[in-house]
Amino acid sequence: MAINHWLGVRACRSAVFGVCRLVRISLVCAVICSSGSGFAQGVYGPIQRQPVSTTQPDLRVTLSRPVYHITIDPKSGAPQMPCDVTANAEVVNWPAGIPKPTVFQWHVLLHWNYKPYPTAHRVETQSFTQKSPFVVPLEGQVRGGTLTVVVSTPPGERTLSGKAQAEVLADNPSHSLVLRAFPPNRTGLIASKICMAESGLHQFTEAKGLESGGQPYVSPSKDIGLMQLNAPSGGISSADEVWDWRANIRRGLAMLGEKRQIVLASRGGNSPGRSPAPYTFEGCANLAAVNMCRLLCGLDWLSLPPPPPISDAPGSGILAGEPDPDHLQLTQREREAIRRYNGGSEYACDLCVDSTCLNVRVVGWQPDPTRGGINPKRGDPNYVDHVLLARSGFTLPKPPKAPVHPTKRRVRKSRR
């Protein structure tokens, strides 16, 4: 009986202690929930933090517009840099009782970060110290890309800095302005057709959908602008040729003239300072076969004969069945220059066997089967056809009429 009584007392005491512990835990949970923080918030929802007020000084920089344009003068065609680029700087959260800075240091960057040929405006070499607002001076050099204005307070106890960015895009000249930039002769007509085939008479990209356009027109082979000057091979000689469409055309015309000079040099034989003329594979094989026969017969070894001059006769550069919508009647020299503008060479000299005297004779210039150089993957095999089919709208001026001399009137003497 004593043991049972003792066990009952222990059980009652444990129950009382358990009830007290539950009451204590409930009170703690209620306190936590009423305070709005702690364990209950971590379990039952995100912790609601009170916003902390920012009192740190800051320098806010803004530009007047997000996009600026390089416009084209409708009469002269000259590109004009934007003259309304205005930057504003404002100091916020400045401590009370301390004079707020009013003079700032300004630094401007205008970069086009195209890896094969990046460009920059010379304004980045200057720094300016003046009050806000600041009119960014971009005149004197035609450049576009990403405009960055970096502003800082003068050195002192508190030095703040900030920046703002915008885009400087370019407008395309009209087709009539582009065509007026080519000389009024056959070279101008051919160059305009090259320009049409290469870029469609566009120096910059046009807006399509969400794309704003106004960036330099770049091909997959890294050719830039109206005349598609190749950046990796040195076709671009100045950043002006990227952003000034007139400079791009001048460079393209100079390169086309250089290609004509190369034609003149390479067709002059093996004289000093001139590259040897190319020969067809079949022609070289014929010469080798004739020399083997001559060697067996005890005759002298033959060297490559001098090539004939390339033809300047109208129509000599047009192949049978080839389209010629502008009635250019290309010469061989012009056709070779067009091909060289795209890379490679158009013609090779062919030789045939003269079996009567174990000799070879020159057949003449034949189109090179590779149509773009030794490497078949270099250049466009149908490039000349594409140029001939391109209709730029360029028209040759009519030849001046011969002056008409008035006929002398014969005066009849009256008979008396």
The largest sheet, given as strand count, sense and whether it forms a barrel, is:
7 strands, mixed
- The whole-angstrom Rg is 41 Å
Averaged pLDDT, please?
83
Tally the beta strands.
14
| Element-by-element helix/strand order | HHEEEEEEEEEEHHEEHHHHEEH
Separate helix tally: 9
Give the distance, in angstroms, between the N- and C-terminal Cα atoms.
190 Å
What fraction of residues sit in β-strands?
15-25%
Structure write-up:
Strands 2, 3, 5, 6, 7, 9 and 10 form a seven-stranded mixed β-sheet that branches. α4 packs across α9 (383-389) and α6 (245-266) packs across α8 (332-342). Helices cover 29% and strands 19% of the residues. With 416 residues, the chain is an alpha+beta fold. It is elongated.
Summarize the structure.
The protein is an alpha+beta fold and 416 residues long. The chain is 29% helix and 19% strand. It has nine helices and 14 strands.
Secondary structure elements and pairings:
Layout: H1 2-35, H2 39-44, E1 58-63, E2 67-72, E3 79-80, E4 86-92, E5 103-112, E6 119-120, E7 127-131, E8 134-135, E9 145-152, E10 161-170, H3 175-180, H4 186-199, E11 223-224, E12 229-230, H5 240-243, H6 245-266, H7 281-296, H8 332-342, E13 347-354, E14 359-367, H9 383-389
